[in-house]
Structures are given as structure tokens and as C-alpha cells.
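Hey,

Quick one before I head out. I ran the complex with zinc ion overnight. Inputs first:
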Amino acid sequence: MADDLSPMPDDWQRALAVVAHPDDLEYGAAAAIATWTDAGREIVYLLATRGEAGIDGMPPEEAAPVREREQRAGAEVVGVSTVEFLDHRDGVIEYGTALRRDIAAAIRRHRPELVITLNHRDTWFGVAWNTPDHVAVGRATLDAAGDAGNRWIFTDLVDEGLAPWNGVRWVAVAGSERPTHAVEVSAGVDRAVASLAEHRAYITALSDDDPDEYARTFVEQAVSANKARFGDRQSVAFELFGR
Ligand SMILES: [Zn+2]
């Protein structure tokens, strides 16, 4: 399977990244985000929750603002200044039309050509069970790319002034066990490390390692994982669905 990943498309200007929790984009995809914003592309983050159930020793009402702050800081490092939260409940996000509608509304507002999300499959590489939040948000995002373009789905959004946007050309799934495409990210690695390290309260609760070292170890391993499949380059790989 040498060099079997195709280069990610680069003929686009706007992307919307939709994930369940603060930190989901920082565990890998942020290196690609940094590379793309360097090239002048506009990327918006949309989070289904504030990650309020993510820190065992911190009750949700305290964790939500901490994690929101950490997410905004992490986004800023990789050139993303717009971060929106849908305020679904962390840990119990329900896949369904309410979630699809919220994501479709964001797609209509931001009119991206590329939508990015995180692994929507049952497992991580057949090894670890995925969380229901990731599965729900990943699937709803893949669905909402179509919903956003159909004026007869969620007609109340049209009433609110959100015209259909049928311009999503691809949905790219990060962390997929079946990647098809990749983007070279060596120039973005240091900022991806800094971006993950911004999730300091979260990482400190998770690991005894220094947050900066923890972030560097994780990101460098992640961007090197597909070297043999992409010209020995540091990359972020995606499973790309065209539309
Ligand atoms: Zn997550």
C-alpha cells in the first residue's frame, strides 16, 4: 500500500470543522488546519458541546467555561478566530434531526466548500470503541452536508433567512480507519502541538506528563503515522467523501 493516499483537494476557500468536543480537532487535525490557514483559507470551528463532562474532578458547570476558553485559545494558535458552540449535552448527544438541523444551519451560515469532521465509525482502527458523541456528530455532519442544500428539509431555516447552500463539495473525516487522502503538514506541526497544549486543564486531569511534552508526543506520532503511505511526509489523513 505504498503511497496510496491521494493529496487533499486544494481548490477551496472556506471550511467548517464540526466535532463533538473541545480537543477533538487538536488530537491530529489541527496541523492540517494550520497549514490551510497559512495559505489564506478561512476555517470556522463548530462544537456540538462545551466538553463539560470531560474532566472527572470538575463538575460540568465549572468545566464548561474552562474548556470553552481552552478551545478558543487552541483555535487561535492555528489561525481560527470563529468558534461556535451548539450546546448539546456532553456525553449524551443524540443523533437525529435536531442535531442535523443545527449543523445544516451552520453550513448555510458559513457556506463552506469543505466540511471536516471526526471519525464517525464504531471503533478507532478496530481497536478501541468510539464514543457515542463522536459517532453521532460525525454521522450527522455527513448527513447535514446534504440537508444544507435542500430547501425542503428544515424549511424553518429558510424562514429564518438561511438560504440553502449546496456548495459543500467534500466532507473530510479525520481519524478514520479508512483514509483516502492526506495533506502535508510539516509547517503546521509546532502550532498543532501548541494548540493541543492549550487544553491544559483537560490534559492535566488526564495525564501526569507535562502538557507540552504530552502534546508533542501525541501530535508527532499522529502526523508520522501515514508516512509510508504519503511519500515519507508528515501528514494528516482523511477519509474524503465527495458530493
Ligand atoms: Zn471527543
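Residues 20-21, 24, 134 surround zinc ion (CB under 6 Å).

Talk tomorrow,
K.
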